[in-house]
Specification:
The chain has 124 residues and is an alpha+beta fold. The protein is built from five helices and four strands; from the N terminus they run αββαββααα. It binds zinc ion.
Length: 124
């Protein structure tokens, strides 16, 4: 609920990407390569961005580890509420994308998810 303002923003940006929304793992996904998605993602070489509980992606088959990365950002939005974007931008400007603690935590979450599911698939 604390992420609601960013979720609404994500819906506007998703609609501004002319993407068709669908639900996946508790998130609302807009897939597109037009509008905002083109300006912010495709043109800059990014695959996905999260606002609240909304993920905007250029990839029609977003891999599950990437979705888990974005889902972790959605959890960060819930914890930080309106502070998410100022905190994210502070670390982005201070440390850069790869050293941003919010990105590192999301990357660890995706890696852990991938490792657990790789291990699980090998035992069957
Ligand atoms: Zn991220």
């Amino acid at each position: 609920m604390r992420s609601l303002p960013y979720t609404l923003l994500g819906c506007l940006l998703g609609l501004g990407s002319l993407g068709r929304p669908r639900l996946a793992h508790g998130l609302l996904l807009f897939q597109s390569r037009r509008g905002f998605a083109w300006l912010f993602l495709a043109r800059r070489g990014f695959v996905a961005v999260t606002f609240g509980r909304v993920v905007i992606t250029t990839d029609p088959a977003l891999p599950l580890p990437t979705l888990m990365h974005e889902q972790h950002h959605a959890c960060q939005y819930e914890r930080l509420g309106l502070l998410f974007l100022p905190v994210y931008l502070y670390w982005h400007l201070r440390a850069g994308y790869a050293a941003n603690p919010l990105e590192q935590a999301a990357a660890r979450c995706a890696e852990q998810w991938a490792a657990e599911h790789a291990a699980g698939s090998g035992q069957e």
